[in-house]
Amino acid sequence: MMNAEKKKRILFLCTGNSCRSHMAEAIVNHDLGHEWQAVSAGTHPAGYVHPKALQVLEEIGIEHSGRSKHVNHFQDQSFDLVITVCDQASEECPLWLGEGDVIHRGFQDPAEARGTTEEVLGVFREVRDLIRAEIPRVLNAYRQNNGTP
User: Fold this and answer.
1) Separation CA 69–CA 44 (nearest Å)
2) Could you say which of 60, 93, 113, 138 is catalytic?
3) CA separation (Å) from 58 to 8, 13, 39, 75, 125?
4) Cβ atoms 16, 111 nearer than 8 A
């Protein structure tokens, strides 16, 4: 098991920092916390973590107590890796100007889902599951390439 000094640091960036980036942060800290320390931020933070994001994380046994924060909160910190998780080209996708390799892996914004409560939860679950499948693959490839995106 790695100690805290040896963990790679990862920052998940999106626009609102209310859903996708928090789900990614929570999943990485839960599933890969022995290797990675994850945090998240946004360019225009919503000011809250979406309750449905927290609900679908709890459904898979992950409790998350993060808060929505601006990317400037981390401007003087270095990261091994920064992953932007916004999806559409028309959506403002944050630019990271600090230290750390940058990778983009876009996911649909579940906060934009419409329909019944169950239909909206279905979108949140789908995004959660895609993040849980894709992000560990990205991190594994990053490690196998000796820290090259």
Assistant:
1) 8
2) 93
3) 25, 22, 18, 30, 11
4) yes
Question: What pTM, to 2 d.p., does this model score?
Answer: 0.89
Q: Catalytic residue among 10, 11, 13, 14, which?
A: 14
- Contacts of residue 73, Cβ cutoff 8 Å, sequence gap at least 6: 41
Delimit the domains of the chain by residue range.
Answer: 4-144
For the cut 50, the answer to whether the pLDDT of residue 89 exceeds it is no
Q: Residue 1: its pLDDT value, please?
A: 46
Q: Which of 53, 83, 86, 123 is catalytic?
A: 86
19 is catalytic: no
- Tokens at 80, concatenated: 């091994």
How many other β-carbons are positioned within 10 Å of the β-carbon of residue 109?
21
- Return d(Cα 118, Cα 139) in angstroms, integer: 31
The reply to whether 86 belongs to the active site is: yes
**Is 3.40.640.10 the CATH number for 4-144?**
no
pLDDT digits (tens, 9 = 90+) for 90-111: 355 556 566 668 888 999 999 9
